[in-house]
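dumping this here so i dont lose it
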């Protein structure tokens, strides 16, 4: 993995992704938590192929704006770009789009962890 790596995830907005369904609002538009989950997915996928065997990443922090509403049925994308690597700490720039329209932008922090050790203490 190296700074500048990027990955784009896609989502077609269905009933399960709506603000009214998730309880983050009462409108039939993309819920902010669903947009954030897509951003996290893009970051996870960005580095997954380059991780050591037995490792994964977990989210530690996400901060994002949600700039525009998006109705059900639209396909959105989220791109994560690896901005910084500090040991096990990875920082990403994340953006979400509805076609060419920017709908969200922010930063996301992930940590590289050993899968077995991480869930052992649960």
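and the seq i came up w/
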């Amino acid at each position: 993995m190296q700074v500048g790596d990027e990955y784009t995830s896609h989502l077609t907005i269905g009933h399960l992704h709506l603000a009214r369904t998730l309880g983050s609002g009462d409108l039939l538009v993309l819920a902010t938590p669903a947009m954030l989950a897509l951003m996290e997915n893009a970051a996870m996928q960005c580095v997954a192929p380059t991780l050591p065997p037995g490792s994964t990443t977990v989210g530690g922090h996400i901060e994002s704006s949600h700039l525009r509403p998006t109705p059900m049925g639209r396909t959105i994308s989220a791109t994560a770009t690896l901005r910084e690597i500090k040991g096990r700490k990875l920082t990403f720039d994340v953006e979400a789009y509805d076609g060419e329209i920017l709908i969200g932008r922010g930063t996301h922090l992930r940590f590289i962890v050993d899968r077995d050790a991480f869930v052992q203490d649960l």
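The chain is about 20% helix and 45% strand.
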